[in-house]
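Technical note accompanying the year-one report. For the benefit of new consortium partners, we illustrate the data format agreed upon in the data management plan: each record pairs a sequence with a structure-token string. No post-processing was applied to the example shown here.
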Amino acid sequence: MTRLSESHRALASESRLDLLHALQGADGPLTIAELAEAVGLHHNTVRGHLDRLVAAGFVAVEPEDRHVRGRPRMLYRAVERPAGASLDERLRSYLMQVFVDGYGRELVSPGTAEDAGEAWGRQIADEIRTGTVAEALGGATEQMAALEVHLTELGMEPELHMNPLSVHLRRCPYIDVASRRPDVVCAVHLGIVRGVLAHHDGPLVAERLEPLVGPQHCVLHLTRTTDNRQDGGVAVAS
């Protein structure tokens, strides 16, 4: 069973979203009894949902540290992203967070999702290494190199097209979730792409993301702020 499948199954349950939201808003770990009271569910039902969240990697469980006789209670807490997680794992976790944050407010709108994605894109852009040649040339070359690294690390198999300027994404690692809420998932990723491009000084901007033009095939449409110029060794035209 893949991590993505586990993430999708966790997203599919409003009760699990309630539990995860309660854990993320708590000052410390919570017991099953405390969580059952918070979300209004039976203890056994809460225990089953927590088992799924633990299996998906979003919740950790550990016994209470007690110095008296008797069976310790189990304590649950939301898991922060591991520092060593891959970019792919981190985006999956971030998508989950966007859904959780939007839950209870008519879920989450594409505009809010795009803003959240752009903020994260700017954050991770510092970690993207484009290579000494691209960084030395700067401009569109560095932007395209950063974008290629980002999309490749996410397993999207990017394919650059120059006329019109676009990037064909031949694989969608998030297809299970995207097929249910393409407006949100694609908006998050469009925002991330915009954040990455904006972090690297150059003329390229992401115009729109065309979702699922074929099985697992999306098209990222780019444009530039200056027409018909050579920039950083890459000839691009809007």
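Partners are asked to follow this layout when depositing records. The longest strand covers residues 204-214.
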